[in-house]
């Protein structure tokens, strides 16, 4: 079956968070009759509950649309959705590499934001044709002219023909479809070359195994072929090829150059078909893989423990299942003196961590205790060796440390200019190094800082949002490792160190942080039968202390016949409460205390 | 049906002249038509009962609010033993003055031999805080009236942890009680129950904090001990020999029948209760099953409320197996920290232990 390659358009939609990417995607589906109107639930591409709640797309998806253009021809439009958060930058870049063009949505009420720029530059890096679209013209505060000019000034894109639309109401959405056909080039595709297919996403399905989403760059591939993954050399026999439709996959006899589709081949985990890898055929292999593959490495680590030790196996199963779908998630067993058996997990960033944690709790019904997140530190020892640690528990004896290094990021913050002062205060508090500041328009600035990653992972983004009433946006990438004055804070309860509450922190912040941790613990540890000293120390030196007074009164004073039921209920409640407690020696610490310490930030 | 063992009887009188701001027991306003209907229903239920009772307790609500004639009429239908303890809870305002004298004469004639008076505090400002209109003078008069009628077994209720209460004001109340010529004192720590006026207006009241309340409780135990009232339960003190026989049944895990909305029963190893609805009760709504009772957990939970605590030999006999080692380990820990006394024969809590008995009992039961 031959497809007219001239009539294929492969594109994605890029935008800053909440500028309307998913809504426009829905509208495109609707306008091309890909989904019956009655089946439309809002934002059909974001099919995880979490995605819909957080208003972000976590995993990319793709869908094939048929569109009859004004020129009378039938076109195949392959819409590749992209994740919209810095944690998933690499996945975004692979999705972009599968396209020839991108629709850039800019919110007519807000203008250019951090990820508008970051994603545009990423798209330009991949030589994509960019079609700007001004969205949300239905809102009273929309100023399409101003925003169009901003896009022209800041990004240098011609906006004279940019459709001005409302993805919400569907107004002018047809113009977007026409511009896709008109401006985005058809793929350059040669069916006769050895097959090279780019994996831009993969999803685990319990019936079919991993479903690999691919863009065929060259050649063809069909069921029965033996496919080879060029990064790992692993081979699988293809079971099915097909196109992604809005509501169900549609098997097809083969996928050929220029097309976007899926492959199943009884692959057991997404780790075997990693995003960015190239698929070729074993019989006629390509000599070179497509450029750009790299294995994504976790940047943020934390311990995840079941609140109830009996759930350890369930937690392992759940992590394994999530990993089937998420090659960026890493985990290995770890034991904590305080928390028992659990896992050290690695994430792309804090959002990734929160998403995994929430999915574990919601989809797998697990009660978890999560330790303070950490980055990877390089420790240079006095004997000349270097160790990498992602867990404060492994922090060596300070006497043997020659120096420590921590990861730094290149960070850009885009904000209305009136918030420059407060943003710079925040970055300064977070040990940022000011690089420069550009006025992208007279009223908007791009503030460029170098920030330590470990300062970003403690609620930096939340603080930024609250200080700027939500107007600032933020983007970062890892830059390098730098020498830093780091110390490890130990938390002692009733004289016993609680390994799960250890922190690695810059020496200058140690005292302030120690005091805050002590206060938070005091507020969140309920009184117990004896007085509990809380001490925070560096090495053997105590730098902060608080005391939880002994419990004096916990009694049901009036207990007559009728009260026995009540008393029993009280016992049940205590039992439930106890389940959520962690035991450190004789001290019971509720999960909330961990969370309170974890959520410590400079704004409260 | 022939029942050989005597059991306790609790009759709930769910009527009050006004609702106290701390109370979450079931009660409705006084309405003579309703009271009559209720009385008939109680009498019907009592008549149907196959048991013989050796204790009877009228609780509330405010039993005194329905008047002595109604109470006496009900008692007339109760099948009870000759030396049966019959208690009526009274509000001071119903029993002072001359009416009070007549009230007690009628009750005494009907067989009532114990009264419990809801004094709460001897400090008038504290009483007003608790929604009590009558003062300590009325209470004293009430006591005199009861004694004149021949009822000498009198109990006073006190409350610890009232807004604005101090060790000094508490001492005033304690002294008043000790000097009042009564045989029994119940001293409850005020608990702010959900849904009460106090709970809704907590911020407006100057409530003593946890530590202050604990100190006042210990002060109470100490004061009453010195004045001849022996503590026999977390909140109960008596001149030896005057402990409440009826209430001891609860804590000793013995049987009792409860009649009236919200009243609980424990008979033949089964617990059941009536819904807290006067209408349901009058309309013959049957009691609700509350599962089995009298197991080890309940036994430990209830017995540890008593100053005498748990007797090891008695436990072995009742449950045909000894307590586990982990129980003893924890008991030892408690005793080393001053929360319990442990001997060869049993374990009991100290006043410090009573104060945190929820926690202690929970931990001990976890180890059964």
Tags for this entry?
heterodimer, A: 604 residues, alpha+beta, six-stranded antiparallel sheet, 14 helices, B: 368 residues, alpha/beta, pyruvate-formate lyase- activating enzyme, Arc Repressor Mutant, subunit A, 2 domains, three-stranded antiparallel sheet, 16 helices, 41% helix, globular
Task: Please give a structural write-up.
The complex is a heterodimer of chains A (604) and B (368). In chain A, a hairpin with a 5-residue loop joins strand 9 and strand 10. About 2% of the residues of chain A have low confidence. Chain A is globular. Chain A is 25% helix and 33% strand. By secondary structure, chain A is an alpha+beta fold. Chain B has 368 residues and is of the alpha/beta class. Chain B has 2 domains: 245 residues, tm_1862 like domain (pyruvate-formate lyase- activating enzyme, Alpha-Beta Horseshoe), CATH 3.80.30; 65 residues, Arc Repressor Mutant, subunit A, CATH 1.10.10. The chains are: A alpha+beta (604), B alpha/beta (368).
Which descriptor suits the 3D outline of chain B?
globular
Tally the structural domains of chain B: 2
The helix fraction of chain B, in percent, is 40-55%
Q: Kindly provide the name of the CATH class of the largest domain in chain B.
A: Alpha Beta
Assembly form of the protein = heterodimer
The profile of the biggest β sheet of chain A is: 8 strands, antiparallel
The fourth-level CATH homologous superfamily of the largest domain in chain B is: tm_1862 like domain
Number of helical stretches of at least 4 residues of chain B: 16
Low-pLDDT sequence parts of chain A: 40-46, 54-60
| Category by helix and strand content of chain A | alpha+beta
Number of strands of chain B: 17
CATH architecture descriptor text of the largest domain in chain B: Alpha-Beta Horseshoe
Unreliably modeled segments of chain B = none
Largest interface: A-B, 25 and 43 residues
Secondary structure tally: strands of chain A: 32
CA-based shape of chain A = globular
